[in-house]
Amino acid sequence: xxxxxxxxxxxxxxxxxxxxxxxxxxxxxxxxxxxxxxxxxxxxxxxxxxxxxxxxxxxxxxxxxxxxxxxxxxxxxxxxxxxxxxxxxxxxxxxxxxxxxxxxxxxxxxxxxxxxxxxxxxxxxxxxxxxxxxxxxxxxxxxxxxxxxxxxxxxxxxxxxxxxxxxxxxxxxxxxxxxxxxxxxxxxxxxxxxxxxxxxxxxxxxxxxxxxxxxxxxxxxxxxxxxxxxxxxxxxxxxxxxxxxxxxxxxxxxxxxxxxxxxxxxxxxxxxxxxxxxxxxxxxxxxxxxxxxxxxxxxxxxxxxxxxxxxxxxxxxxxxxxxxxxxxxxxxxxxxxxxxxxxxxxxxxxxxxxxxxxxxxxxxxxxxxxxxxxxxxxxxxxxxxxxxxxxxxxxxxxxxxxxxxxxxxxxxxxxxxxxxxxxxxxxxxxxxxxxxxxxxxxxxxxxxxxxxxxxxxxxxxxxxxxxxxxxxxxxxxxxxxxxxxxxxxxxxxxxxxxxxxxxxxxxxxxxxxxxxxxxxxxxxxxxxxxxxxxxxxxxxxxxxxxxxxxxxxxxxx
Length: 557
Hints:
The chain is mostly helical. The chain is built from 22 helices and no strands. The protein has helices at about 10-40, 45-65, 75-100, 105-125, 130-145, 155-175, 180-195, 205-225, 235-260, 265-285, 285-290, 295-305, 315-335, 340-365, 375-395, 405-425, 430-450, 455-480, 485-500, 510-515, 515-535, 540-555. α8 (about 205-225) runs parallel beside α10. The chain is elongated and about 110 Å long.
């Protein structure tokens, strides 16, 4: 193939710029002719509008005539310039007839501007991206330029969707992917403007459907361009990736904002449920491109539930259970069928822990489960059992899978998290540190049976949590005297240890009341943990646990 000629600055300036200057001059000619006729009252308003429309049509016809002349010098650029001048002249004539002279009603103007936009989009097939850009700008500005005292959400967003889908069709057909980003931004800007100025709760359905349709159009339009990753132009590939990542994420976030602004109606929640199922289906069909969609959707739904202030605890619990079942259930089921099980295992685990915490935060003070003894601890232990079952199944199902270790780590961490939550919620504070030390010992024993790398750092985290719970008691015992001076603290400690006289301070410190139980027993658990972890390998973690055991025994003494 012949090497591409480099278009230097002189060539650009000398060949292309004068053509577009001529097109702009022609467009301004139409504007100034109309202004001149108005200033001198030469023609009636009707004649002015008709002549403006004829000028725009003549420019479009001239562009088509030149395009069909292959021997015309620089004919393609001149045709683009004439079309680029004709489209604004037609827009201006129609707006003058409506807003300036009131010759035609707003509805007819709206329809006419839609026809002009469609004409510009069709002409872009022949004349290239500049004409498509004119159609894009004019199409999205049309509703704002016409205006209405009683705007209609169905009419506006149906029009915007047809405009968006038409432009995306041209972008896909002509490979104008640079125009896809402003096209998408135009659609989102209108959603934001409507929510800011004209929103009512009844409009939420139309806005959500519009965002869902826009998302589906993005997926359908860019599918082939993204699939041809190796053969396609790198810029097109990057743009289609950004279009999918940014477009779908923003659409999901806007959906959450719309539902909250509408008051969290039942129909809005139903649409969100369908969108959640759609996001999961999309990710299952293409993990590589759409694997992020269920995560964004799950996060947005969690935020919506967090900020939903409703007095009906039963309805809240029902909605929460439904969304938990959608994400966690789908993640667990699809994990065994997908090529990338990590995506679905992580979704199931994160949803389970996150929505459990959300349920506890929103419902533990309500009458729904307040009278059921140990409900939250029992529920956490049941979910921990499910995670342990998944852990066992992963070990038996995946033999040589490269992600087996990570899957084991995910469910081991999930089981540990639920056990910690159960202990934290149900146990009194003075017994929580003992429970964490016991959990650390159990995890180290499991690690000696099933070597999972993540269990060692989990043991370290539990040891740090134990230290954080015990440290305030130690500081209170040593420095928290009711006497402020160091001499007074020394007197208090001597009185306590030598004369067995207790001040009121020691009565509030569990380690001072039962040092063998609160310090000696955890010391034995730390020693056991270091023993089981040493079976794998010695290291800083084992030595830190041994040092902690010695420290606990010293404090107990």
